[in-house]
Structures are given as C-alpha cells and as structure tokens.
Automatic annotation (TrEMBL):
Residues 88-102, 311-324 have a biased composition (Low complexity). Residues 325-335 have a biased composition (Polar residues). It comes from the Eukaryota. This is Uncharacterized protein. Residues 368-381 have a biased composition (Basic residues). Residues 75-129, 295-381 are annotated as: Disordered.
Length: 381
C-alpha cells in the first residue's frame, strides 16, 4: 500500500481537524460546566425560597387554625346548646385545615346577621360625651336662658402662627373636647380666642393648667393696638378704633355664619350684649340660616263655610257682602296655591259642588238671582 493512498490522506486530514478542534471543545466544556454551576446555584436559591415559603405557609396554617378555634368558641358562647369540637392546635398539614371545612361553613352563617338579629341587638352603651349631651338636652340650663353671658371668649397666647386644624389637634393631645370648642378666632398677633360655653370653662382651664398654661385675663379685642398692618400705622386714633371694631365685627359675623345652627341664637345674643354686632345683622344671619316654617294658608272654602252656606234658607234674599270675613269661595281661587289645596283637600273630594246649586257658585250673588232661585218652579199645564 503506498503512502499516497487517498483513504489515508482523508484520515490524516480528519485527525488534523480533530486535533485542531480539541482546544475549542475544552472551551465549550468549560462554558457548559459554568452554566451547569449557575443552574445549580439557581436551584439552590429556589430550594431556599421554597423552604421559606413552606415555613410561612405552616405559620399561616397555624394562625388559621387558631382563628377557627376562636370562631368556634365565640359561636359556642352565643349558642350554648351546640358544643363544636375544637380542632387540634399547631397542626400545619393541609388535612387538618381541610377537615373542619363543613363546620367552617356552618360557623360562617352568624357572620352575616339578618335584619331581625340587627334589630334585636341591645343599643350600644352610652359614652360619657353622649350622656353629658343628653343631660344638657333634658335639663334646664344652669343659668337663666335670658342671660347673654352664657358664652365667652378665652384668649390664649401662642408662640407661632397656627391654623385652626393645628390648634384643634393640640387641644386633642391634652384631652380637650373639640366639640365644646365652638370657634377659634385670631384677634391679634400671637393670640387666639376660643369661644366656649361657660359650663365648660372650668374643665378647659384645668386642662390648660396641666401643661402650665394660663389664659390672658385682660384682653380687649377692640383695642386698636392689635392692628399690626403697617399700612394702617398713619391712621388717626379714631379711625384705628373704628377699624378695630369693624375687624372684630367681621370676625363675629364669620362665627355666626359657620357656627352650628342650634347655637346661633345664644351666641348672637352674646355678641349683641357686648355690642360687637348690630342686632339687625345678627337677625339677618339667623333668618338666613334658620328659616322659619311657612305658615299654612287657610283653605279657600273650609267645611265651616260650607256648613254656613248650607244653613242659609233659600228664601233669604239678603246678599252676602264681599267685604265680610268669610273665606273666599272655592269656585274663585285667589292663587295657584289655593287651587292646589282645593285639589288635594278631602273636603273638596268628599263634597263636590252640585251642578244645579247656585249658592256654591258665588256667595256674593245679586238679589235678583237669589229671588229667581228662591221661587218654586211650577209645572206649566
């Protein structure tokens, strides 16, 4: 066999290619091994996560079983005749949570009470605030109702400007009932005015003493020195006094515009007593915020008027004066409101006017018509 055999040459070429590919194969093998290592690391992290989830699931299963046990205890306390068997605590398997499923369906029915259950519930206990409000409602006032000094302003110093919301949050922090704080005004720089009822002043001051704070005893909201706007410094003293009174009047009117309507008359009397607002402005706000009920208009033709008309004999020829005090007849309504009253009043529904009765048409008929109606109708023969 010669060395130049083509088969041997092919084998030699293949061996040369394999020899040249061996370094590339080593690189591929190293890369695959690195990928396998990363996949193994991913599997390890997944295994760790799965174990953590399993631990959390076990803790949740324990919490669920405890909650189910508490629900059964509550249902047994409400229904002493039924004695459900409590599940074993600490069981984390799915079988322990799935086994009481029918009982869980039975215990969920009290969670949606019927209307009869809601109505039969006892009323909630009265809180101290509700009890005090009911006591004030159904008891006479400690002071005379005609006294205009039942409300007062308590003036407090503040270190920096604050809004009403911030001030009320500070009051809430020292257990001051914000419902008893009727309004907050800002009459001067670093000074606030708290509108209170005199029955709450002692408790309010005791809460302030707990934080070593005392109100300003002598404060005049009408003092012109409280005007700190520089553009008013050059005004004469009389104008500044008038301006201070006007500013305080605006504050009082704003209080009357936003105060609770049931407190409006008493606070208005307090402001009028101190001559902070004129009576007509206070009355305008009261009429606007507390409209008086509209008086019911008298029916155009009442049952008394109808009875009076029926009692008049047919032979009476005396005409009824149009200026009498009797109500206007139903056939001549004076306004659209009276017509609507006629349509809905049971008197007009139960007793409609007779078509041949001339008296129901107009009580102010002429004597000639009355004479004609009073003559008996004879048969023509």
């Amino acid at each position: 066999m010669s060395s130049t055999d083509p088969a041997l040459a092919n084998i030699a070429n293949i061996l040369a290619k394999v020899t040249a590919f061996l370094p590339e194969q080593d690189a591929i093998n190293s890369e695959v091994s690195q990928q396998l290592i990363s996949v193994d690391q991913h599997f390890v992290s997944f295994d760790q996560r799965l174990s953590a989830y399993e631990t959390q699931f076990k803790s949740l299963a324990t919490v669920v079983t405890d909650l189910f046990h508490l629900v059964q205890q509550l249902s047994s306390s409400k229904n002493p005749e039924s004695h459900p068997i409590p599940p074993s605590k600490g069981s984390s398997s799915l079988s322990s949570t799935d086994s009481p499923a029918p009982k869980d369906a039975n215990t969920k029915s009290p969670a949606t009470p019927t209307w009869a259950d809601i109505v039969s519930r006892p009323p909630p206990p009265l809180t101290d605030r509700k009890r005090q409000a009911l006591h004030r409602t159904f008891n006479p006032n400690a002071t005379d109702s005609s006294d205009a000094k039942s409300y007062t302003f308590v003036y407090l110093p503040i270190s920096h400007p604050m809004t009403r919301t911030q001030i009320r949050s500070k009051f809430r922090a020292i257990s001051i009932d914000n419902l008893r704080v009727l309004d907050i005004i800002f009459p001067a720089r670093h000074t606030i005015g708290i509108l209170l009822h005199e029955a709450y002043i002692s408790e309010f001051q005791s809460k302030l003493r707990e934080i070593d704070t005392s109100p300003i005893t002598s404060f005049n909201p009408l003092d012109p020195t409280h005007i700190c706007d520089p553009k008013y410094h050059d005004l004469p003293q009389e104008d500044r006094t008038r301006l201070a009174r006007s500013l305080h009047q605006d504050r009082c009117l704003r209080t009357l515009s936003f105060i609770r309507p049931n407190l409006l008359p008493g606070i208005a009397k307090y402001f009028i007593h101190h001559k902070w607002i004129p009576p007509h402005l206070a009355q305008d706000i009261i009429n606007k915020r507390i409209p008086r009920p509209v008086k019911r208009r008298p029916i155009s033709s009442s049952s008394v008027a109808q009875a009076f008309e029926e009692s008049v004999p047919s032979s009476d020829t005396t005409p009824i004066s149009s200026s009498s005090n009797l109500p206007t007849p139903a056939s001549v309504p004076s306004s659209t409101t009276q017509t609507q009253d006629m349509d809905t009043d049971p008197v007009f529904i139960s007793k409609p006017p007779k078509p041949n009765d001339s008296r129901s048409l107009s009580p102010a008929s002429s004597p000639r018509k009355l004479r004609k109606s009073s003559k008996p109708r004879g048969s023509k023969s």
